Amino acid sequence: MTVIKYKKIWYALSMLLIAASFWAIHKYSFNLSTDFKGGTITEVSYTKRPEKDLLESNIKKLNLGGFSLRPSGEKNYIVRTKELSPEQIKELKEILEGNIERQNTIGPVAGAELQSKAVKAIMVVVLMIVLFVTFAFRKVSKPVASWKYGLATIIALAHDVIIPTGIFVFLGHEVDLLFVTGLLAILGYSVHDTIVVFDRVRENLRINEDKEFEATVGKSVSQTFTRSINTSVTILIMLLALYIFGSSATQAFSLLLIIGLIAGTYSSIFIASPLLVTFYKLQKNRPHPALS
């Protein structure tokens, strides 16, 4: 199939996108939210909620430094700022002119702990996914060892996390716990799509043991291509509707999922499966194939 034939082009495109993502992360760095760096969270409710732009303009007059303002429900706003002094809290309440529902302060130690736990959560999920894929394909030993299916999966997952993160940072969106939730959702979708293709490869290997491996992988991708695209387009339509018609509170989250969905679909078809062929060819060229 064309996907396997032109795998070097897909590799080059992915490496270009990954390099651009790392550049964006290095250039602009993460815009960490109060969840991760500590600060004050204030939720205010209104009988008639004022316009967001007007409220942001009023808060800027306090010179609190960086802050974020997000709608919550139909009548509330959530304001995230640096850790405020009692005087600043009083000034903020006067500017908001609403009913303060809650106001919490997260110290830098608690924020750092959340940041550490978020990174660990992503690493644990990736590790468990790789172990599951290796276990699921444990009976596939020829012509590519089962652990290489897990290796191809982890490379595809890294691709699907790095690219959305780079674009998210480049656009200046805030990195918070919702962002971490989005990455975990992307990982789940991506591995699901990848396993569908790998499972077809395993089935075709069982049916046609003597067929060339590259041809088998190409056939498997062809058989699952329409299914993968149709599923992705269906989900994409839903996410676009959420992004366009949903509240501003969920726009960044839905945008992250849209980017991750596209990256995940691409990697499942154009990266993970061709990697199996690449591993197979590297294995054939080794002087001691028994070590593969």
Write the layout of secondary structure elements.
Blueprint: H1 2-5, H2 7-28, E1 31-32, H3 34-37, E2 39-45, H4 52-60, E3 67-72, E4 76-81, H5 86-96, E5 99-106, H6 108-136, H7 146-170, E6 174-175, H8 177-207, H9 213-245, H10 251-284
Parallel strand pairs: 1-6
Antiparallel strand pairs: 2-4, 2-5, 3-4
Helix pairs in contact: 2-7, 2-10, 6-7, 6-8, 7-8, 7-10, 8-9, 8-10, 9-10
Overview of the molecule:
The chain contains 10 helices and 6 strands, in the order ααβαβαββαβααβααα. It has 292 residues and is an alpha+beta fold. It has 2 domains: 213 residues, Multidrug efflux transporter AcrB transmembrane fold; 68 residues, Alpha-Beta Plaits (2-Layer Sandwich), CATH 3.30.70.3400. Strands 3-4-2-5 form a 4-stranded antiparallel β-sheet. Strands 1-6 form a two-stranded parallel ribbon. The radius of gyration is 24 Å and the shape is elongated. The mean pLDDT is 83.
Give a nutshell description of this structure.
With 292 residues, the chain is α+β, with helices and mostly antiparallel strands. It has helices spanning 2-5, 7-28, 34-37, 52-60, 86-96, 108-136, 146-170, 177-207, 213-245, 251-284, and strands at residues 31-32, 39-45, 67-72, 76-81, 99-106, 174-175. The strands form two sheets. It has a four-stranded antiparallel sheet. It has a two-stranded parallel ribbon with strand order 1-6.
Principal-axis shape equals: elongated
- Classify the oligomer: single chain
Runs in which pLDDT lies below 50 for 5 or more consecutive residues are none
Number of strands: 6
Structural class: alpha+beta
CATH level 1 class label of the largest domain? Mainly Alpha
What number of structural domains do the residues give? 2
Percent of residues in helical segments? Answer: 55-70%
Radius of gyration: 24 Å
Order of helices and strands: HHEHEHEEHEHHEHHH
The largest sheet, given as strand count, sense and whether it forms a barrel, is: 4 strands, antiparallel
CATH superfamily of the largest domain: Multidrug efflux transporter AcrB transmembrane domain
CATH topology of the largest domain: Multidrug efflux transporter AcrB transmembrane fold
Which CATH-level-2 architecture of the largest domain?
Answer: Up-down Bundle
- Mean residue pLDDT: 83
